[in-house]
Amino acid sequence: MNHYLQYCKPSLSSALMSIGLDKTYHRAQGQYLYYKDSHGGEKAVLDLLGGYGAVLLGHNDPALKQRAIELLQADTPMHHQFSIRSGAGGLAEKLQPLLKKETGWPDDFRCAYTSTGAESVEIAIKHSEMIRGHKLDLLSQQSERALEQAALAWEQGEEVSLSLSEEQTQAHPTLQGASRDKLLAYIRDYNANVLQQPPVFIALNHAFHGKLTTSIQLTHGAMYRQPFRRLGLRTEFASIAQLDALCRGEEAWIALPELLLPKKTKSGWQLAGVPVPRVAAVLAEPVQGEGGVYVLTESDAEVLHRVRDKLGCPLIADEVQSGSGRCGSLLAGSQIGLKPDYVVLSKALGAGLSKLGVVAIRSGQYADGFDILQSSTFAEDEMSCQLAAAYLDRLFEEEGRVLAKVRDLGELLLGALKGLHHRYPDVIKDIRGKGLLLGIEFHSQENAPAHLIRTSAYQGALGYLLTGHLLNEYGIRVAPPASAGSVLRIEPTILLTQPQIDELLYALDRVCLAMRYQDTGFLMHFLVHDEPHPTREPKDFRSWYSTLGLDVDYSMPADSKVAFVNHLISSDWLRQVDASLQHWTDAQCDELVRRFAFDKRVAPFAPVRIRSTQGQSVDFVLYPINATSQQISEQLEGSQLEPLRHAIDERLAAAKADGCTHAGLGMFTSIVMNNGKAAQTAGISLTTGNALTIAMAHEALLNAAEQRGEPCKTAAVIGAAGNIGSVYSLLAAEHCQQLILVGSGRQGSEKRLLKVAYQTYQAAWETLLSEGLSGRGIASALRPHKEAIAARLQATSGRAVGETIFDWCQEHLADAPVRVSTDLGAVSLADTVICASNASDAFIDIGTIQQNAIVCDIAVPHNLSDSALQERPDIRCIRGGIVQTPHSESLDPRVRAYLDEGQIYACMAETVVLGMEQYPTHYSYGNLSKAQVKWIAQRAREHGMTLGSVKVSESM
Ligand code: PMP
Predict the structure, then answer these.
(1) E strand or H helix at 707, and its extent?
(2) Of 393, 439, 797, 863, which residue is least crowded by CB atoms under 10 Å?
(3) Which GO terms describe its molecular function (predicted)?
(4) Best residue for ligand 1 mutational test, from 290, 295, 356 (most atoms within 8 Å of Cβ)
(5) Are 766 and 859 within one domain?
(6) Which residues have CB under 6 Å of ligand 1?
């Protein structure tokens, strides 16, 4: 497993691990796959996935295995390319009557061999373009001849004039009154251009035709196709209804060009339009497997025939998954009367033992010489062809007993699943399929009350979660199709028995009940417990969700929408989010978070609409990432920020796509994103929310001082050299007589502290000059020395004001109003301590803090721990401002953390205010200024957001 993770599929392996699918199967027999559990015991898994359709008769079918052994024992040549290959010929011969019968064509079929499904599709594509190319070559010659004849006629004196239709005049204005040479040159160029156009292929919505560079462009699922869209092949995806409309001429969604040919008629020279084959082929899977198990009908087949005729191109039936007996006949298409020109087979045709694909092309449509152009080292190998022939014999022996069994079993299973649908119409949306290719589509859980279930759906992973549950709890293997995350695909072997159908139904019944009841704990139990609990009953949590009051319906859109990126404080908070996890231990919650770390996207919570007292409304939406404070701080310490940054950027992009204009980087995400500057997402205004956090904390601090009955005299600012600390120092300087700026002592810290000290003096000086006697704080401390300082400033004019004052104070005052220190002991001199240091752990020694001091600790994580504070009830500690919303709007109770009704954190409120203001750009982004703090505080007040209760406990 580790080697697979390390050397082969790192991302997929992580995904498999996250949902308990990381099993290593060492043995396969019949309908069972076997793995060793953590105690070394062999566990059998009922395989209802059948090798994604490749195993119909059962794993390692004894008779076919015997045939393989015989072939090996007979020293059958494996690699004898460029010779007359009897296995390939024999298999093709065996296919002839079967294909003729099932397609209804009398023609022979030419067979081209490959090793995989996608390769086979690509060969079909290549062949169809060769056919189109021949037609284009003929048209090119026809064009040249027509032009030559016109030139000759005009050369011989015929009048040079072309009568054009109205449409032609419009489309080709150059032709109007053009000279002979110009006419000919124009038509020649135009035709050459039309003939040069690349082919277009038509595939159906939900199509899956492979993942190679060409076939991937025929696969509808955008996730697989989009990254490779520049590679070329042009595909139009359409529904059957759109194809029908195209045939009827009601919709012209595909441009069909025409060649222009000058032609002499009785009424003179005209320009004939000759259709050019633009579409090289139409592809269809009679039962779409990977797209979500969609079954084509007889009338769909008729539409496909009509579109083929209209476009003059071949119809390719991709029966890679649906064919070779999987749906109860060699071709699933034969059950709906489909008459394809090419048939593509693979998967089960390899008898579950070898890798083989075949493209069978009607001989009337075959491009001579294609077989010389196409070859592959492994194609036509004797072993695969012989095994496929033996497999076909099995399918059709005893008048097709095996195929009849597939049909009967399919009916039985389909009936049972429909019964389940009947019992759970609220959970199951549809049951579809044919033969032993069936699908269960679940209703979207994107609005599920249980947020973890909702998140699974949001990530397109619901089907995978259920797959993990079924495997680990019941030992049943199924999987969603490649492009349909809320569908479970069931592709059993023909060995399936009634008791096993009952087993499946029992397990699915529990799953449906748990989804109905929103019992996340039941569904996810397997992720955190070693032992399965197959007999436990799901519990009903619907009433818990209904008491949360989550069904708010905002029928009118808000004036704007803002996002806020947050994360878990710690994993045990999951119990708050989901009542079904109430009895989970901290370790189990941790394990769940760890499992889900693979995909950090958490579904956004429903918006909270906040209305300004001035009227504007803002929808406030949480876009969480799945990570805890501790996980993030570990990554911060280890400087492994890229995955987190990527996850946060993804949230920002999602918020933007959902129409959010502003996003707040909450909790640790602002640090991870370097105060917003590391974000890559454009087109959304960012803020850390720091400005209003400072403003509110500052207001709370002043209130606390008032309650204490003693104003702040000496404030120590820990981390004063930092972004937040420096602004805080400037604010504190407006109220305190003395300021001690404390820095870390790290390199450059003292220099940065001095810079802050200079700024503080300069601001105080400006206040003193403008406000005279009313200036408070450091300004009032400087007032007695105003004249002396002014004289010094005059004498040193040209030198920076702040620096000059600093020097003067150092020289003349025993106790300068602003001091810098790298000694934490300086805290003992302060009656007010402001903590704004960026440290991963609380580091302040509570013993150094004065009696009855006020501590304002807005650092994330905190500089002073809650446990230390418990020893000192005399200290009033403020953890940051909490904002009262204008009309008591509240966060979802599951994510309120330490907030009460009607409250949000100041950083959230800043994001809301920016939305209300439609602020045009980033706000608290990079370095902060005191002016920003003041501006946002003012705007918040105007919108009715005021300081709420003071947050006094630790929250991160
Ligand atoms: N076409 C269809 C209809 C398929 O289902 C698949 C595989 N699921 C392919 C093509 C591609 O086959 P392969 O994975 O062997 O390349």
Answers:
(1) helix 690-708
(2) 797
(3) transaminase activity
(4) 290
(5) yes
(6) 52, 116-118, 121, 208-210, 285, 289-290, 318, 320-321, 346
Could you say which of 835, 863, 882 is where a domain stops? 882
Q: What is the pLDDT of residue 240?
A: 98
Cα 435 to ligand 1 centroid, rounded to whole Å: 18
pLDDT of residue 567: 95
Contact (CB, 8 A) for 19 and 468:
yes
Closest of 904, 890, 909, 903 to residue 548, by C-alpha: 890
Two tokens at 921?
Answer: 């750009």
Residue 339 — φ and ψ, nearest 5°? -120, 80
Distance 478 CA to ligand 1 centre (A): 17
Structure tokens at 417: 């699943």
Structure confidence at residue 953 as a pLDDT band (50, 70, 90): low
In-domain check, residue 793 = yes
Kindly state whether residues 744 and 775 are assigned to the same domain: yes
Q: Is residue 264 part of a domain?
A: no
CA 210 to centroid of ligand 1, rounded, Å:
5
CB 360 within 8 A of CB 114: no
Q: If you take atom 1 of ligand 1, which residue's CA is the nearest one?
A: 209
Say how many Å lie between the CA of residue 212 and the centre of ligand 1: 10
Higher pLDDT, 444 or 880: 444
Of residues 181 and 385, more confidence is placed in 385
- 218 alpha carbon to ligand 1 midpoint, in Å? 11
699 and 684 both lie in a single domain: no
Phi first, then psi: what are they for 573, rounded to 5°? Answer: -65, -15
User: What is the tally of structural domains in the chain?
Assistant: 3
The domain of 779 spans 693-882
Q: Are residues 486 and 535 in the same domain?
A: yes
| pLDDT reported for residue 943 | 98
| CA-344 nearest atom, ligand 1 | 1
Residue 164's pLDDT is: 86
Of 347, 384, 483, the residue with max ligand 1 atoms within 8 A of its CB, to mutate for a pocket test, comes to: 347
- pLDDT tens digit string along 382-439? 999 999 999 999 999 999 999 999 999 999 999 999 999 999 999 999 999 999 999 9
d(CA 464, CA 487): 9
Q: How far apart are CA 812 and CA 799, in angstroms?
A: 18
pTM over 0.90: yes
The pick from 56, 209, 322 for probing ligand 1's pocket by mutation, whose C-beta has the most ligand atoms within 8 angstroms, reads 209
Centre of ligand 1 to C-alpha 321, Å, is 6
746 and 860 part of one domain: yes
Please report the pLDDT score of residue 956 as a whole number.
46
- Determine the distance separating the centroid of ligand 1 and the alpha carbon of 70, expressed in angstroms: 29
Looking at beta carbons, which pairs linking 231-238 to residues 24 or more positions away fall under 8 Å?
232/198, 233/125, 233/201, 234/198, 234/199, 234/200, 234/201, 235/200, 235/201, 235/202, 235/203, 236/200, 236/201, 236/202, 236/203, 237/202, 237/203, 237/204, 237/205, 237/207, 238/202, 238/203, 238/204, 238/205
Provide CB contacts within 8 A for 250, sequence distance 6+: none
Using the 3D structure, point to which of 517, 545, 573 is the last residue of a domain: 545
In a domain, 937, yes or no: yes
Between 674 and 176, residue with greater pLDDT? 674
| Secondary structure (DSSP) of 617-632 | EEEEEE--EEEEHHHH
Instruction: Report the half-sphere exposure of 475 (CA within 13 A, side-chain side).
Output: 18
Is 909 a domain residue? yes
Pair 739, 799 in one domain: yes
Summarised one tens digit per residue, pLDDT across range 886-938 is 999 999 999 998 889 999 999 999 999 999 999 999 999 999 999 999 999 99
Separation CA 692–CA 912 (nearest Å): 11
Backbone dihedral region for residue 760 (phi beyond 0: left; psi -120 to 50: alpha; all else: beta): alpha
Question: What is the overall mean pLDDT for the chain?
Answer: 94
> Is there a cis peptide before residue 538, judged by omega within 30 degrees of 0?
no
Q: Do 764 and 700 fall within a single domain?
A: yes
> Average pLDDT for residues 772-784, to the nearest whole number?
88
